[in-house]
Amino acid sequence: MRLCSVELTNFRNYDHLQLVFPDGTHVLYGANAQGKTNLLEAIYLCTCARSHRTGRDEELVRHGSDFYRVSVRFLTDRNLEESVSLEYRPSSNRNGTPSRTICYNDLEVTRLSDMMGLFHAIIFAPEDLQIVKGGPGERRRFLNVLISRTDRSYFRDLQDFWRIIGQRNRLLKHIKSRGSLSAREETVRLCGNLTAFDQDGSELDIEEIAAPQSGAQLDVWDAQLASVSSSILKKRLDYTEKLSEYAALSLRHLTSSREQLDIQYRGFSGLDREMGRETIERLYLERLRRGREDDIARGSTSNGPHRDDLSLALNGVEARLFSSQGQQRSIVLSLKIAELMILTEIAGEKPILLLDDVMSELDSSRRSLLMEVIQGHQVFITCTDPAQIFPASSYAQGSAGSVYYYPVVNGTVGSGTNAPMG
User: Fold this and answer.
1) CA 209, CA 122: separation in Å to the nearest integer?
2) With a threshold of 0.70, does the pTM exceed it?
3) What average pLDDT does the structure give for the chain?
4) d(CA 377, CA 349)
């Protein structure tokens, strides 16, 4: 896959920008806060309609403007020219409701899931260090995006999961909030002051009627939650195995076999990657029912895909706690290379690689090894000093093939040349 052109309107610090790119490696250089990262962010936005830096679209609108628009044109490895565009307006009507319009080949895409897998770009930015340093949510997000980009049904399963667990949590909170009422008071509130009788005509205690109602509702939500969660968990287990294999190979290459990375999926006890979906569904349903009283006390669901984690072990110890800043950066870079390999294998397209200020934190040996790994991919790199990437003797032809340099100054990008200006 090759990015042919990008066009920005009112995006971050860009008023309007239109660039055309040949194949090869593209180096965006200049001082900090000039717009280098913003350009990579715009390109990545067209892969999954989400920035790698913020979840708030309004932050992407240029100050003083009332919308932003990003558009990319690209050539697939099957030699098909295609396009993706996004437009966001914070207040699109009299009610002030925001709108986001996504188009593929100039036709509107109405469901976000249908956008996944159209345009493949992988970004490595300083924020990605949180995959190692941050909490479980950062690692789940990385895994969710990876799987969604090759499996649209997974993305739809995630949407269903959050809808179902939201309903279950509301019911749990309702049961918890009514815990101070007697069953008689609750039933009278719901049904009125009625008298019930058994088959033999004897009066029943109204508390015997109230007790099963909430439990029956939870049974319904538990069954739905277990069904969609089993699909999510099975795919996460399968992808984690592949991710661990490729990331370990990448790190060994980057470190000349000095460091070993192991990745494991950490879910509820008893979960195993060899299990089928039906077995996972049954085990999770049992887990939900055993933990029901605790969930009612908490007012939320305590176990499931929304609580799971990826365990990253470097040389046998937890990377989050015991690895250095340089080692953490190498781990994230290995994860990104693994992501690139998985997308290439499953989607049949070579993703575009976006490297935001990566080289400044790598020694010369790892820089050289990285450029070897990404050969054959179109690459966009940001830096403050072009010499960090290629020495002066290789400005025109680096190890990645043709190299083009673009000076970036205050929201403007100069024409690409085979040597940095100035």
Assistant:
1) 57
2) yes
3) 86
4) 10
